[in-house]
Amino acid sequence: MGLSNGGPILISLEGEVMLLDIAKEGWLDRAACRDADNPSIWTSGSQKDSREAKRLCNTICPVRSHCFKWAMENNENTGVWGGLDTKERKELFY
Ligand code: SF4
User: Is 83 in the pocket of ligand 1 (CB under 6 A)?
Assistant: First the structure.
């Protein structure tokens, strides 16, 4: 997903922009992507970036399950969330 540092952040959700409030979603404080040097790898859509984002999600992020649950509950359709890219998340529905 690639989080901005602090405050509510903007996230594309089905073509819309919504606020994901860090104060409400407490797990975001511990998101590995929050302080990443290269946050764009979670959202660029390139296979190379997605592979690296998923590797980081699955190896160093302590809140992967929270992130995955949020993305599935909110039908998030862009970027890497919870260690899965958009295609992989959609496949779980079918
Ligand atoms: S699982 Fe990945 S996208 Fe989700 S908070 Fe962790 S590093 Fe960010």
Answer: yes
Position with higher pLDDT, 25 vs 92: 92
In this prediction, residues 12-34 reach a mean pLDDT of 69
Q: Are 56 and 36 in contact (CB under 8 A)?
A: yes
How many domains does one find in the chain? 1
In a domain, 29, yes or no: yes
pLDDT of residue 88: 94
**In whole angstroms, how far apart are CA 94 and each of 64, 75, 87?**
22, 14, 11
> Would 17 be classed as within a structural domain?
yes
Residue 2 lies in a domain: no
In a domain, 3, yes or no: no
CA-nearest residue for atom 8, ligand 1, is 33
Q: What is the pTM of this model?
A: 0.79
Q: How far is the CA of 50 from the centre of ligand 1 (A)?
A: 12
